[in-house]
Amino acid sequence: VKVGLEVHQQLATGKLFCECPSDLSEEVRGSFARPLRSTSGENRAVDAAAVFQAGRGLRYRYEIASTSCLVEMDEEPPHPLNPTALDVALTLALLLDARPVDEIAVMRKIVVDGSNTAGFQRTALVAVDGHLDLKGKRYSIPSICLEEDAARKVRESPGEITYRLDRLGIPLVEVATGPEIEGGAEAREVAEEIGALLRATRQTRRGIGTVREDVNVSTEGGRRIEIKGVQELRKIQEYIDREVGRQKLLLGVRDELVRRQVPPPSAETTDVTDLLPALSVGPLSGPTRKGAPILAIRLPGFGGLLRAPAGSDERLGRELADQARSAGLHGLIHSDELPGYGIEAPDVERLRTGLGLGPTDAFILITDPNRSRAEAALSRVASRAAAAIEGIPGETRDPLPDGRTRYSRPLPGRERMYPETDIPPIPVTPEHRARLAAHLPERPSALRDRLARDTGLVREVILQLVAGGRAELFEELLGRGHEPSLVARLLIQDLPAVPHGEGEPEWEFPSATLDGLLRSTESGEIAKEGIPRVLLELAKGAPSVAAAIRQAGLAGFTAQELDALVERVVAENEELVRSRGSEAFSPLMGDVMREVRGRRDGQEVADVLRRAIARKQADPAA
Amino acid sequence: MAAANHDDPWEVLRGLPMGRRVEISDDRGTTWTGTIVPRQEMSGDRVVQIKLDSGYNVGVLVAPTFRLRLLEASTAPAGSIATPSSSGAVPAAGGAPWVALLTTGGTIASRVDYETGGVRPVKEEREILSFYPELEAAGRVRIVPVFDRLSEDIVPEDWLALATKVVAAFTGGARGVVVAHGTDTLAFTAAGLSFLLADLPGPVVLVGAQRSPDRPSSDGPSNLAAAVHVAHEGGFGEVVVVMHAGLSDGRYAIHRGTWVRKMHSSRRDAFHSRNGPPLGWVDAKSIHWDLPPRASAPRPARVDGPLDANGGLLWFYPGLTPERAESFARGLRGLVLAGTGLGHVGSSHLDWIRGALGRGQVVAMTTQCLEGTADPFVYATGRQLQRAGVLYLGDLLPEVAYAKLLWALGHAADAKAVEALLLADVAGEFHWRHESGGDP
């Protein structure tokens, strides 16, 4: 397997071509709608991806967010390129030993999925020919680009996709590696190192969705597959491993189809509504009750090849269903999963006979109120089935939260790019490069060494801090006089553990808040075991650390109150102490901790309790 | 074919034609392979612009020590301009109703060359129809190229040439006429045509685009389709402007040619009617009128020319000296002032204005507020100007008053007659009532 990565990192520098901040926003100030025309008609080579999108006949609605202006609405020309963002990209180029171009030309890259109001994305090649050295291996970095992020999809309904303009225009640095990565684990390490380099510039946005990776995977005998927009670094490995498994399965199916000498199936559809009884369950039942026809295509020779083989989670049937979905349907039913979905064995036989199919053949059922859409979907399914005889079609796939990927669209051809004439070329002078070179940020390797040396923390903790992008915050909190191990625990254990919604970023709090929380811990106001509960209250919206401590019920348990509580518990269990002696410690510790967990430090509780038990043993009358 | 070059590669590069494939190696060992694209006008010295095979353009500063290889031309790279397919056939001159599309240049009739980024005009009818396949949704269109000019280069004499083509189109049987025009001075041309065209049997619709047609988001195609729709189905007889009504595609305003102004440098909905609402609105299905348009004339259309370009428009501002203003006015037959507020200029200007009027020049007053009426009677300065003989033109926009002045100068020799024409309602240009409502 050969893997190449494209790492896209959002910058916190403000937007690339206007003066809006690099912030998402929940404040929507209206919306507008536009169709996008495919301008592909004027090109000899029609871009498959562009035609695919334009063929969906969608209308795009754009929500005007408070962090967007006329530039994002494509109602005003772009402003000059953000010089701070350019410096970040150039700094990264220098860190990767790349060769900056002498004059940057901003390009318009045609994108007609609606995610850019103009119908193109602005992008510029900033540097070429870099490399990254990691664990004794050198990875080539063919290009470093600076581009604008696309609008954020917030909703999708039949015929209309809604995007919000807050994300549009946020600068993205794109770092591409050569296809020299040889597996999922290695890919993750390379991505983490590039991420750490990016964060070394201290100008990056943080949280889920602020780093996105495109992963190009090729296996021997397969074709290039692009998994686009992986947001969680730790999942890269899983996506790659599963993709390798998927390609392996598809190559096996291909071999079997070739062995069976199966011809490409036809997209000719048959209306089989009358061959089935009225269905009361299953995905077909709803639409058919409303009069939608059930359409079928034949897949001669595909019998048994649509389902997952034993021990595998991958199956050709899913690839075909993805095609139906991409045509706007909910999915399809294939004969390898029948009987089922309310279709009984005799119905299946009737379908086979009606379609003139034998036991080694397969068929596909689809229903949709819109007959032409159903036929378009079946045509895509037939093409995909035909491609299975050739092997693995090159395509772009979307990553799913469960580690699988799903067909998204055909691979784009060579990008359709032409100059952004509204922005003059930007010279990168030797003086400019020298100025940046004189102030290069600390490389992650140097940072790791320094932190390990200065804090005495174990290497694994340092690695987690740096790879997780929390080194900057860590250092800031150390600078405020906090104890390294306490801060490290807060940043790599407690913060990530605060519950957050599926697909939501991990919680982040201002450094001043974390500073206050650490102070409360160090002063003994709360125990470090109480930190997760305070964080939870902060996440729920507590206005301050003090309020969060109160809301968590951790406030006001003084050392005196602890003494009193321990005395009371020991007194109540006088009999136990007398009979078991110091053996009584464990059950009594449990009783006390139930009351004080998070409010007093566990070690302190143990010490107080041991002393009280000892006193009781020495003087039972006390 | 590899021509090693041991001299300064820049000397060779600067002479290479666009589209030539080259390989440039720098001192560091980085090699740039791609196609020469035209030098950006703002590029630095010794910088060659190359389109790399990835599609990106870069500028390479060529040092004398770099190595240059000239490569065989590749096959035409994707992204180059192809001959447009003949998807839109030229409509036959048969019986079906048709409208004429007069092209004058500007964004709406230009294409971006994807290889160079340059903008070039589109002249071929076939080519325009292939770019705007939806153009004939509302009915047949015949394309008549008139000239190819950015709108800032269009002069009043061009209004007359355009008016002649409009009349020719109606005489030839057109149901309506669409004029595709650059947006910068579109409102001037709309006003000029409003005065120069008489007895219109059908709609004359000016239309433009605020976004170039290379953008998938261009407003040109939908503006044009709406304009063709209005020209086909409008059934009225005056000059209007049809452009985006808001940020969304799908709704277009129909502005009277003498009420409209470009009020934003870049937005799609830049065109606004002043002093009142647009005449009406058009969407994909229907035309809705808020105010009745002027009825089509039963007589054949005619050009009501000529015009005399010897008139001027002067925007008053604090600090404008009487000497400067007088020197601007010298030699003109007439002058429109865009005065402050209700129509004022500094009192120090009274002397030269009296002199100009005494020499038989026409001096007319409008308000630079662009909304509301010029009224001489509220303040002393206004009363003095009015007594001196300055003609107050009500709520005419300064540009509209200027266009009307040129038309009036073409129609009368003496100042009194010109003034009478200026005050006459020629094309529905005055609002006699101003209602509240809508934002100014």
Textual characterization of the structure:
With 622 residues, chain A is α+β, with helices and mostly antiparallel strands. Chain A is 38% helix and 20% strand. Chain A has 20 helices and 21 strands. In chain A, strands 1, 4, 6, 7, 8, 11, 12, 13, 18, 19 and 20 form an 11-stranded mixed sheet that branches. In chain A, helix 12 packs across helix 13. With 440 residues, chain B is an alpha/beta fold. Chain B has 10 helices and 23 strands. Chain B has an 8-stranded mixed sheet with strand order 9-6-10-12-13-14-17-18, sandwiched between helices. Chain B has a 5-stranded antiparallel sheet with strand order 4-3-2-1-5. In chain B, helix 3 crosses helix 4 (186-196) and helix 9 (398-411) packs across helix 10 (415-423). Strand 5 (103-104) of chain A pairs antiparallel with strand 4 (57-61) of chain B, so a sheet runs across the interface.
In short:
Chain A is an alpha+beta fold. Chain A is built from 20 helices and 21 strands. In chain A, helix 10 packs across helix 11 (459-467) and helix 19 (585-596) packs across helix 20.
- Give the biggest sheet of chain A: 11 strands, mixed
Poorly predicted regions of chain B: 1-5, 76-93
Number of helices, counting only DSSP H or I runs of 4 residues or more of chain A: 20
Average per-residue pLDDT of chain A, rounded, comes to: 88
What is the multimeric organization of the chains shown?
heterodimer
Approximately how much beta-strand content do the residues of chain A carry? 15-25%
Task: Please tag this protein with its features.
heterodimer; A: 622 residues; alpha+beta; 4-stranded mixed beta sheet; 38% helix; globular; B: 440 residues; alpha/beta; 8-stranded mixed beta sheet; 5-stranded antiparallel beta sheet; 10 helices; 23% strand
Task: Please describe the topology of this protein.
The complex is a heterodimer of chains A (622) and B (440).
Chain A: E1 2-10, E2 28-34, H1 48-54, E3 59-65, H2 83-95, E4 99-100, E5 103-104, E6 106-110, E7 120-134, E8 137-148, E9 152-157, E10 160-164, E11 171-176, H3 184-200, E12 211-218, E13 225-230, H4 236-259, E14 270-271, H5 285-289, E15 294-299, H6 316-326, E16 333-334, H7 345-355, E17 362-367, H8 371-390, E18 395-399, E19 405-410, E20 417-419, E21 426-427, H9 430-437, H10 444-455, H11 459-467, H12 471-479, H13 484-497, H14 511-522, H15 531-539, H16 545-551, H17 559-572, H18 574-580, H19 585-596, H20 602-618
Helix pairs in contact in A: 3-4, 6-8, 10-11, 12-13, 15-16, 17-19, 17-20, 19-20
Chain B: H1 9-13, E1 21-25, E2 31-36, E3 47-52, E4 57-61, E5 67-70, E6 98-103, E7 110-112, E8 119-121, H2 125-131, E9 140-145, H3 156-171, E10 176-180, H4 186-196, E11 197-198, E12 204-207, H5 220-233, E13 239-244, E14 251-256, E15 260-262, E16 271-273, E17 280-283, E18 287-289, E19 302-303, E20 311-315, H6 322-329, E21 334-339, H7 350-358, E22 362-367, H8 380-388, E23 391-392, H9 398-411, H10 415-423
Parallel strand pairs in B: 6-9, 6-10, 10-12, 12-13, 20-21, 21-22, 22-23
Antiparallel strand pairs in B: 1-2, 1-5, 2-3, 3-4, 7-8, 11-19, 13-14, 14-17, 15-16, 17-18
